[in-house]
Amino acid sequence: MSHIQMLGLCRFSYPTGGDGFDGSAADLGANRARLHDPARLALRFWFFEEICLPTLAAQTDPDFTVLLIYGEGLPDPWKTRLLQAISAVPQIRPLARPEGLTHGALCRAAMQEARDPEARAVGEFTIDDDDGLASDFIAEARAGFAPLRPLWRARKRAALDFNGGLVLDTGAATGPTLSAVQAEFWAPALVVFFGPRSSRSIQDYNHRRLWGRMPALTLPEPVMFLRGSHESNDSRLERRLPGLGRGAGGQMGDAGPETLLAERFGLDAGQLAQSWATRALT
After folding, report:
1. Angle between the N-to-C axes of helices 78-86 and 38-47, in degrees from 0 to 180, rounded to the nearest 10
2. pLDDT digits (tens, 9 = 90+) for 107-144
3. Would you call the peptide bond into 77 cis, given omega within 30 degrees of 0 as the criterion?
4. 225 with 189: CB under 8 angstroms?
5. Cis peptide, bond prior to residue 222, ω within 30 of zero
6. Would the CA dihedral through 185, 191, 192, 193 be positive or negative?
7. Which pick of 103, 163, 224, 263 has the fewest CB atoms within 10 Å?
8. How far apart are CA 229 and CA 169, in angstroms?
9. Could you give phi then psi for residue 226, rounded to 5 degrees?
10. What is the DSSP annotation of the chain?
11. Contact of 51 with 226, CB cutoff 8 Å
């Protein structure tokens, strides 16, 4: 009964019934057309294959599961490419689901079904297909339950927020740029610990308001998330971080973003820039 299960959720261009994401339309056909646009999928695959998958594969603690939800109507060659890409990361469990389902109910059911009923607690987290996690995220998140346990015990809910990270922005004409940031209660590197039989799941909460719904511990270091910023998501720096120091300096130490990228995520800024410059556009 001492095991802390780490359970993640990744949604890969799943067309919902109109909820769950900024930009979602009420019409399923419109959502499907937007999400399955070849140029958009090419961009998402670049982040997924260059950022998301390598950082999941590099976790120092391999005891975790990530549920990857995608629509049954995801067309080829994209579906075949997706399944081939995740085959190298055994912790990823693909879940093809009918399109048009309600986002919250879909995610809740998937997470609850995957919980270990014998776990002491389940640490749920989300990772978008364009984000990455530091190589010790799973290990540090699992260890982070210990100081939260007295607060968690009362309601079987508590949050752990790693608020230091990097943003990889591909909007510049000169190529990708890296910025060190601190952003409280962003979705990446945010963990919610539930009891294994809880009726709630991480997607039942607005992550930006999570601090008002349960006890939470915020850790400003170490750098724990790598967030993609590009034309098809909602994490553009100019929209998400107005007025905040992008250096987020004090807690980051003296290391520059490129050094942090290598040390914390095992990625090389020069290689990413070269890959971006030669990527396929569709």
Report:
1. 10
2. 999 999 999 999 999 999 999 999 999 999 999 999 99
3. yes
4. yes
5. yes
6. negative
7. 263
8. 5
9. -125, 110
10. ---EEEEEEEE-S---SS-SSTT--SSHHHHHHHHT-HHHHHHHHHHIIIIIHHHHHT-SS---EEEEEEETTPPTTHHHHHHHHHTT-TTEEEEEE-TT--HHHHHHHHHHHH--TT-SEEEEEE--TTEEE-TTHHHHHHHTHHHHHHHHHHHTEEEEEE-EEEEEE--STT--EEEEEE-TT-STTEEEEE-TT-S--GGGS-GGGGGGTS-EEEE--S--EEEEE-TTSS--HHHH-TTS-TT-HHHHTT--HHHHHHHHH---HHHHHHHHHT----
11. yes
130: amino acid identity, one letter: D
Sign of CA dihedral 197, 198, 202, 208: negative
Q: Which residue has the tokens 């098809």?
A: 232
Identify which of 161, 158, 142 has the alpha carbon closest to the alpha carbon of residue 150.
158
Q: Return the structure tokens found at 40.
A: 């958009």
Least confident of 2-11, 12-21, 28-37, 119-128: 12-21
pTM for the whole thing?
0.92
| Span 158-181, pLDDT tens digits | 999 999 999 999 988 788 999 999
Rounded to the nearest angstrom, the gap between the alpha carbon of residue 228 and the centroid of all alpha carbons in its chain is 10
Q: CB neighbours (10 Å) of residue 199?
A: 9
- From residue 144, how far is each of 58, 60, 85, 140 by CA, in Å? 20, 15, 30, 6
- 8 Å CB contact between 235 and 229: yes
The token duo for 204 is 């039942």
**Closest of 130, 126, 15 to residue 70, by C-alpha:** 15
CA distance 47 to 164: 20
Say if CB 17 and CB 228 are below 8 A apart.
Answer: no
